[in-house]
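A protein record in our archive is deliberately plain, so that people and models can read it alike. The tokens are whole numbers drawn from a learned vocabulary of local backbone shapes. For reference, a complete record is included directly beneath this paragraph.
>
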Amino acid sequence: MKNPITSLFDIKYPIIQAGMVWCSGWRLASAVSNAGGLGIIGAGSMYPDTLREHIRKCRQATNRPFAVNVPLLYPNVQEIMDILVEEEVGIVFTSAGNPATWTGFLKQKEVKVVHVIANTKFALKAQYSGVDAIVAEGFEAGGHNGREETTTMCLIPMIRAAVDIPVIAAGGIASGKAMLAAFALGADAVQIGSAFAVAEESSAHPNFKERIITSAEGDTKLSMKKLVPVRLLKNEFANAVAQAEANGASTADLAALLGRARAKLGMFEGDMTEGELEIGQVSAMLNEIKPAATILQEIWDGFLLERDRVLGYTF
């Protein structure tokens, strides 16, 4: 399939694996890229030297394009950007920060830049900053989220109407049907996180993967809007956050409750009680751990099947 995103990234399918902390190392990224999508290494959970190692291992494991996601609110961003340039990473997804800060630097190095946004204001700001494409992430998504709580169904058509650059839809997408819906709303590609978080190649702890595939409707909630909005699976830590918020906790209170390495404790080390468990609402639809290539192919085949079914209607 040729469209603005497959042409921009030189990939076979307009399916992008999200750059997820503690889930998306070189094994997952290379598996997705080898299957025809765009794999992304999530730099948010990596020290600079660890990131360099993952980039090199990914390049050894695939000869297809891959990207690195950099949350701009994290420390060591300058060092990370220097590593990306030194290692000749050709595609960078930025998120959780001002796109104007680093887009120019990366573009001068001939890097393709994509920025993640959750509202029209930042979509326009990203376009003005010179990014090549944007990820429009709806309220359903896992991890860091938008304070506006705009759902994907509402967000994508608004962003499509506002910008002239390619739009990648994210949030609540884990099937061919959802992918087709995103395209009908104006997306040029989809970014998928939760479904790949439970891939065999994901670096998430087996306990976390099992918790995801056994989760049910309503088991996630957007939390910590005063600090950094994040969608979490409900557990004792998430319940403590909810209670603190109900009692009027300040930003400082929430930061103290979160502490350090809380996401690592849950998603990477497997503490399902006290760990931070970032995942999307679509987790309730996931029920099996599979190879990343199988996940991608099932989504693509489902997309084609639903497209042909819809086009076959007589209205």
